[in-house]
Structure formats: structure tokens, C-alpha cells
Amino acid sequence: MTNSARLQAAALTRNLVEMAEGGLAARLRLEHAARIISTARRAATLAAVGALRMPATTEPAVQAVTEIARHWDDVAVTALEYAETLPDAAIDRLLRAAPAWAAAFHVGVPDRLAA
After folding, report:
1. Out of 72, 83, 85, 92, which could bridge 33 as a Cys pair, Cβ 3.0 to 4.6 Å?
2. What does pTM read for this prediction?
């Protein structure tokens, strides 16, 4: 067996163990939270330079996502590492609020390119 095949087999084994133990759902939940956090930060950065208009902070969903994303120190840790430190209640709040937060931007769906 080559070194490459050995590494692939080890990675596959870790993935299968994680799935069997139910850890995949938890990992995907954290990855989704991290994506929301980094998207919120990107939106705030673009709004700061006038490239995007942020939705009103009077919306509870906007408040929730903005508050959680604001505390992320992107120099010190990745969004995933930050999400891993959040209490379950904060992640639940973030995941519940994200769809309404995104919809509050009133951005249209980009046109698809023809195949």
C-alpha cells in the first residue's frame, strides 16, 4: 500500500467513525455557523466602504447575527474555531436567525449563466 493510499484510508476511517458516532451532524452545524459568521463579517466590511447597505438593526434576526459575528476576532482564530467556542444556545440562535438576516438585505438571486 502506498503512503497516499494509507493516508486516504486513515482519513476515510476517521470520517466513518465520526459518522457512526453521530459527530457529522455536529460538525456540519459548526461549519454552517462559521459560514454565517464569516459572511456577516464580510457584509459589515463591505458596508463600511459603502459597497453594501446593511439592513436595519431593529430586526431581531439582524441583531442576533450581528451581535454574534461582532465578537469574532478574525486575527486570532478562524470562524470555525470561534464557532466551536460558542455555547449551544448562541449557535442555535445564530442558525435560526440567519435566513431572516440574509433576507433582510433584499438582494436578488443572481442570474444563472447558461451551460
Report:
1. 83
2. 0.76
